[in-house]
Amino acid sequence: MGLFALYRSRNYFKRIFFTTILLIVPLLLIFCSVLYAFSRNTALELQQDANHKVLSQINYNIDNLNEMVTNLTVSTFNDRDIISLLNSPSLDMFQFYNKLEKMDRILISNPYLSSIAIYNSSNKCYYSTTFLSPISCGAKEPYNILKAFLEKNRTFPKLTLQPMTEEDGAGKGSVLSLLIYSSAGDYSSSQSILMLNVKSSWMFDNIRMINELGDNSSGYAFIIDSQGNQFSPREQAAPDDSIMQELNGRLLDVEAPSGYFIAKTAQGKQIVNYLTSRVNGWKIVSVQPYDAVFGKINAIGTFSLVVLLLFVAISLFVAAFASIKLYKPVGKLMNQLNLPPTLDRERVSGSRDELGYLSFVYEDMQTTMSLLRNDREASRDVRHHYFLKRWLMDSPGISRSEYEEYCQDRGLDADSTFVLCLLKIDDYAKFRDSRNEREQKLVKFAVTNIVEEIIASHDADPAVDMASDHLVLLIRHPQVGAQPDSALLERLRLIQDTVSGYYKLTLTIVVGQPFNDYKQLTQQYEQLQFYSLHRMVLGKQALITPELYAAEAGEANEQIPLDLEKRLSESIRSNDLPMMKARLDDWMLWIKGLHIEQIDFAVLQVIMVIHQTIRELNIQHVQTVMSKLKRYTNLILEQETLEDIREQIEHVLEELVNERNHVKTGKQNFLVEAVKEIVQLNYTDPNLSLQSIAAIMKMSSAYLGRYFRSSESLSVADYMNQVRLAVAMKLLEQEEDSVIEIMHKVGYSSESNFFKLFKKNIGMTPGEYRIARRG
Known about the structure:
The chain is α+β, with helices and mostly antiparallel strands. The chain is 61% helix and 13% strand. The protein contains 28 helices and 16 strands. A 6-stranded antiparallel sheet has the order 3-2-1-6-5-4, sandwiched between helices. The longest helix has 67 residues, at 11-77. Mean pLDDT is 75; it is low at 1-9 and 340-349.
């Protein structure tokens, strides 16, 4: 096999190698990236701090300049010579030039001033220290800065520096102008003005010097006034429009007086710092090239990349060396492995690595061993299960040698003492009908596992499914003759609680007497099946111990008391359901004291008493009642406890009472409807009465009267009057017959009696009623 082919077959080696690389290289990348990002942010913070200090110093100088120029303007405005130039309509020529010379002296003594200008409102003349336009009285002067300003602005702030453009012979330049006039309010054209213009180059030279001291010489600065106008030194180019737009946009949204942002311009990315003056609202802006600030940081990044590549190359060699060392034991194991004949390395390896291949081989061997082990265990379990069933069903037929061989396989002493337990499923009919065969097997298997786990502290054979409704459990006991110990009984109780809690299934457990003769097992099994009948009295989920069935009360030949039959029969005849239930309770109390062999016969006797009494009753639909009784009889005989039997017998009695009440109610409704029908058909007969109706129905008039009153809450006579008066009211409304004629039509013969009954029931006489209804 060639070197390349050998490498391709070593998947686990490749996994080690690439895992090592992927652990080293990403960590180096992350480290270098974090270092570069941290260095860049730190440099930016330091630069911003330095720029903020520079801008703060510039702001301080501007505030100081503003204060200095303001003081000079106020003192100049109050000078007597300047006052004459501001307010005198005419001056002597000699005095006039002396006063103009005073303006020149003030200009010369303050080198930061560019020029001084005055407007005299009395004579409408402008005086200035500029060479091109010293005096202007009405004529158009293109170089008169004050006149040009007043023509454009009617209102302007007083004693506030304003950027303006001044033109002289050398060209245009930016100046900062401060204007003052005499009134405290807004300016009017009748007022004189004094203007002092400060050289902007003087201030920008100061800014440039501060920038150089702050290591910001590669950038430039400019100022934006409160109206948004920007100005800069004459030799400096105007700021980029993109910087101005982004600066204005940022200042609209940000309340902070200072800050910075990074702008993308045609010259590349720029770092823009700004600060707002507290005095006049100017914004001092500093712009620096992004690359100039981060040049050293970028150099660090380049150096880090080179170092990273170097480390990656070294990591490849280290990873290869480490992978070879780590893979060496696995490779040695692969070369030494002898495959089973059924396995082929190429077939089972596929895309697996070496560990996957070794795991596959190991799993195949484990599966083979498990199959062999399971086959052996299954064979032994089948053999033991078969023997245990034989032992239970025919213990006398088991030879001593077979028994001893079984005990040896199970690790038991052949002379051991055993206790047999019977685990009977309660409500088995319901369990069988509500679950299919597969679910029944699963539940029984789960119950078997629970039993074996809880009885693990005792020497017990597995539970055996002997019949459809019960399991058996054989447990080794310490000694013969003693009762089952309390620890065993507690575990049996725990089995009942666990099965009930998990599967909603109750178990009745019967515990046998300890025995040491293996040939007694069949007898013990048959006895426990008989003793399980105690569930009828003890109820479901009972634990039937030898003490319970050894102390059973009653005699096997006890006779049923005749008074119980008589009282139950009388309660059925009286159709009194509470009395029936009370007599049934007496029966159940007596049955509980019987021997278990007599309980079934006593229950059948109760059913026979009910059956015979119903036949003796002369009631309608007797066949329906008897068919229901037959159906309930089958249900009663299927019940497992006396409580369930009592509940089913109560249902029989309730059905009987309901059937008899239904028949009685039907008869009552028939009699009432018959009386009403006779009255409605014969109300015109004056001789119609209770006696005549009773004669028609061939019944006693007294009985019929009482029965009708109890059913309708009124007498037959009152009902006859209701029918007759209702018809009389209808005739009074619709026909023209006289009241007397209508009286005879509805069956009344006495006029006074008719009027009296009509007024009592209707509230007015028949004549009044007719008038009221016809309106």
